[in-house]
Amino acid sequence: MQITNSKNLFEKAQRFIPGGVNSPVRAFRAVGGDPIFIQKAEGAHIFDEDGNAYIELINSWGPMILGHNHPMIREAVIKAMENGTSFGAPTAKEVEIAELITSMVPSVEKVRMVNSGTEATMSAIRVARGFTGRDKFIKMEGHYHGHGDSFLISAGSGAITMGNPDSPGVTKGTAKDTLLAPYNDLNAIEALLAANPGEIAAIILEPVPGNMGLVTPKEGYLEGLRKICDREGIILIFDEVMTGFRLAKGGAQELFGVTPDMTTLGKIIGGGLPVGAYGGKKEIMDFVSPAGPVYQAGTLSGNPIAMAAGLTMLNYLNEHPEVYEALNSIGSQIVTGIKNSLIKLGLNYTLNHLGSMYSLFFTDKEVFDFASAKHSNTALFGKYFQAMLQKGIYLAPSQFESLFLSTSLSHDLIDQILQANESALKEIH
Ligand code: PMP
């Protein structure tokens, strides 16, 4: 496989962009080799600057639920652009998408659009603090909520991949208000509450974390958090930037039947354009300016092009529940195939899976939290990643990420993925 153009671009990029990329994991540092520069994407495939095609299993880290460059989204964007690209003033589409989101996501009675998942979580925490008058919040080890200062403490995703889960530049003053608990452990939460009585504004978590690889909640865990928050007057925030509109129309909260007080969203609600949102109970959201005193704003928030793309995507998902059947079926076919190959090859690796998200961990131990995810052999993952890339399958370039499937994966493509997977596993052992 020739990757000369990508190599040349990366060399040049490193002269002008820190590390040559605009988001760290893209540099392939954790898996070795140079990153592939992408020229275009269509359906289940992305194409690099050297003309190589790859079957996509990241899908822009989630949003391309229907595959890349879907004609419906493309047309909506082109049509919206005929009217101008930004007004910095209210539009009809913002009202329409807000109404739609509140009808789809159980916890959301009012919603504010922002431009990224990072903004959504930063804003949600500010509102939770303003509403409760308390400063501290609990976050789970290995969960990632974007790059806001107070979240870069034991952070997953690129932060752990690059070896910086606690980023320099975050002040001690900020860090002291972020309390850490292991995921899936209610006793640890109780211990933090006992040590910080009446001081905790919020518990924020990825209900189904994908940023330390995919991990699923133990039975009763999310329900337990809900009960604790009710008892203590703590705001429960589900960060559904990855899981929203993917695990179910109403996200993980619908799937598990646990309704948080606030929810953060991103990615899919922009149909692939830069969008995030946070929402929740009316009385909490009415604390946001100009309804209330907590300030949060954005020149490009509710951007008309992004709203057109997002609205088209969400309307489609709302009206086509069969999308979720298709995603779940594709997910089980791939995971069953990988399991069969593991058995055939006598390998005992851990495969975590829910709906259209999965992670193959290179450890034989169960992975249920950050500490157990870190048992994985990341060097072996790097070899697996490279072997898959050579076979035309584009995976997330880190052990500590989930994969995201799209409805554009046909039976033939699934077969190709499974064959590549089996020969990659053979090659690296
Ligand atoms: N929360 C979660 C759960 C995420 O997965 C991410 C990004 N992957 C973010 C927040 C941050 O979103 P963004 O990259 O759009 O700022």
Automatic annotation (TrEMBL):
Main location per the UniProt record: cytoplasm
Q: In which pathway does it act?
A: Porphyrin-containing compound metabolism; protoporphyrin-IX biosynthesis; 5-aminolevulinate from L-glutamyl-tRNA(Glu): step 2/2
Q: Which organism is it from?
A: Cecembia lonarensis (strain CCUG 58316 / KCTC 22772 / LW9)
Transcription regulation keyword on record: no
What the record says about family reads: Belongs to the class-III pyridoxal-phosphate-dependent aminotransferase family. HemL subfamily.
Quaternary structure, from the entry = Homodimer.
- N6-(pyridoxal phosphate)lysine-modified residues are 267
Pfam families reported for this sequence? Aminotran_3
Which UniProt key words apply to this protein? Answer: Cytoplasm, Isomerase, Porphyrin biosynthesis, Pyridoxal phosphate
Name any one GO molecular function. glutamate-1-semialdehyde 2,1-aminomutase activity
So what EC number does this one have? 5.4.3.8
Q: Which GO terms of the cellular component aspect does the record hold? A: cytoplasm
- Its protein name is Glutamate-1-semialdehyde 2,1-aminomutase
Q: Please list the GO biological process terms of this entry.
A: protoporphyrinogen IX biosynthetic process
Gene symbol?
Answer: hemL
> Which metal ions or organic cofactors does this protein require, according to UniProt?
pyridoxal 5'-phosphate
PANTHER family in the record: GLUTAMATE-1-SEMIALDEHYDE 2,1-AMINOMUTASE, GLUTAMATE-1-SEMIALDEHYDE 2,1-AMINOMUTASE 1, CHLOROPLASTIC-RELATED
Gene3D superfamilies documented for this protein: Aspartate Aminotransferase, domain 1 (3.90.1150.10), Type I PLP-dependent aspartate aminotransferase-like (Major domain) (3.40.640.10)
Under catalytic activity, the entry for this protein gives: (S)-4-amino-5-oxopentanoate = 5-aminolevulinate
